[in-house]
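Workshop exercise sheet. Pairs work together: one partner reads the sequence aloud, the other fills in the structure field after running the prediction. Swap roles for the next sheet.
Pair: D.N. / O.F.
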Amino acid sequence: MPESTTQRMAQRLLEARARNGYPLGLYLRWSARSLIASLALFGLGLALLAYYEAWPAFCVVAGLYAGMQLRDIAYLRISRRSWPFLSVVLDWDKVRAVAGPMDSNAEPATRREGR
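Structure field:
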């Protein structure tokens, strides 16, 4: 049975808690599919624009892609800054209940509540 979006989000919260926040590697692993797809689409568009020597449009599209990546990096930085507060106020028992069964290495049992 496919897992729900809510269950997947709860599992990701528990995984982030096990790592004490959102490290860059975890973010890249979770976002790999969309990052590769956007890179492929923008790369194809940029290649076509370069082939037709449409340099102003090339610069606009390259700027859009750069802005998109900067937005994602800013979101990651904000998430990292807010993690200490979120880890204290979240009810981890409810998150575990929503997440359902998980891997044994997703969240170490030695972690204290609120950390």
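Discussion prompt: Residues 66 and 112 are 39 Å apart (CA to CA). What would you look at next?
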